[in-house]
Write a structure and sequence with these properties.
single chain; 355 residues; mainly beta; Laminin; 5 domains; 3-stranded antiparallel β-sheet; 3 helices; 31% strand; elongated; repeat; Notch_Cell-Fate_Det
């Protein structure tokens, strides 16, 4: 059974507390303000068998403690669930609120806060933070960062007239983008969107690809053979991971020339086929895309092939389309040439037109 009791000892709330200024918590309970001062809850002294929203219920040692959900502690339509082992509760909040008692409105849902495709994450006490994509920073992801390599080799400055038909060249991440005038489209604004006829150039599609006209005959596209892909069939379509070459739970990823097996300790080797005896940080093959691993203090360093970057060479900087055929190598950006491409070949050489 429970009995209503009250003693003369009450906690003194802070003068700034509006709801708690009336001392609603009995028997030494501590008042906690919620919902911006519109509501409260009481934390009862652990040394006394007290319960209820205001710590005004005396719980007999011979009776079962009342459910902590009886006082409706979950706000804003939150659902209260009892943990019967500890006689505590958990609030399951609606999407619009969060917090231990669903007391905070989710700022990420009330307005668009994060810019440039940033992800809004609600924080404590009615706050939020923006998780920014690559090359953006700031409270709202409003600041654009230009990699030093791009700043030193601004392709838009190096190659005047890169964008055709009056298009404007602008840096976009670690590459560039042509902003086209009305009536033109394509990577270089080379395709007219006005009614016209396009004829296939026999040399437009590479590596045996077939040229077809699209969009009511105003642009061209390539139908590639099974071994190639890309806008002009310029990329070798290989998938060495299909044969599952990695052993001992190693994870396979496709690189530009061959596959890479990310090994699970203590295994190492090209296919994670052997047990390491050195415990080197390079044993797990951490570098992707054929990057070379070297020990760096207690960690490792990856030396990436041209066209790749990142701590583990995981970022692909290769152009999405290419105007030269680099098979059996691959195409990389080369701002100093026209067209602005070059070939990285399996031998390690960089060639201007082909391998």
């Amino acid at each position: 059974m429970s009995t209503t009791v009250r003693t003369t000892t009450t906690s003194s709330p802070s003068p700034s507390k509006i709801v708690c200024s009336s001392n609603p918590c009995w028997n030494g309970g501590t008042c906690v303000e919620t919902n911006g001062g519109l509501d409260y809850y009481c934390i009862c002294p652990s040394s006394l068998p007290l319960g209820g929203k205001n710590c005004d219920q005396l719980i007999s040692a011979t009776t079962t403690a009342p459910s902590p959900c009886l006082s409706s502690p979950c706000m804003n339509l939150g659902v209260c669930t009892v943990n019967h082992l500890s006689n505590t509760f958990t609030c399951t909040c609606s999407n619009n609120y969060y917090g231990n008692r669903c007391e905070y409105p989710n700022q990420c849902l009330t307005q668009v806060l994060c810019q440039n495709s940033g992800t809004c994450i609600p924080g404590p006490s009615n706050t939020f933070r923006c998780q920014c994509p690559y090359l953006y920073s700031g409270t709202y992801c409003e600041q654009s960062m230009t990699p030093p390599s791009i700043a030193a080799n601004n392709i838009c400055i190096t190659i005047p007239g890169l964008c055709e038909n009056g298009g404007t060249c602008a840096l976009a991440g670690n590459s560039y983008q042509c902003i086209c005038r009305t009536g033109f489209t394509g990577q270089y604004c080379q395709t007219s969107t006005s009614p016209a006829s396009a004829s296939c150039n026999p040399s437009y599609c590479l590596n045996g690809g077939t040229c077809v006209t699209t969009g009511n005959g105003i642009s061209m596209a390539c139908v590639c053979t099974a071994s190639y892909k890309g806008d002009r069939c310029e990329q070798l379509n290989s998938n060495d991971c299909a044969s599952q070459p990695c052993l001992n739970q190693g994870v396979c990823t496709q690189g530009p020339f061959t596959y890479n097996c990310r090994c699970v300790r203590p295994y190492t080797g090209k296919r994670c086929e052997s047990v390491s005896s050195t415990n080197s940080p390079c044993d797990s093959n951490p570098c992707s895309n054929s990057g070379q691993c070297s020990v760096n203090g207690s960690g490792f360093r990856c030396t990436c092939l041209p066209g790749y970057s990142g701590t583990m060479c995981e970022i692909n900087n290769r152009p999405g389309s290419c105007q030269i055929s680099c098979t059996p190598g691959y195409c990389i950006s080369n701002p100093g040439s026209n067209p602005p491409y070059a070939c990285y070949c399996p031998s390690g050489a960089i060639q201007p037109k082909s391998c």
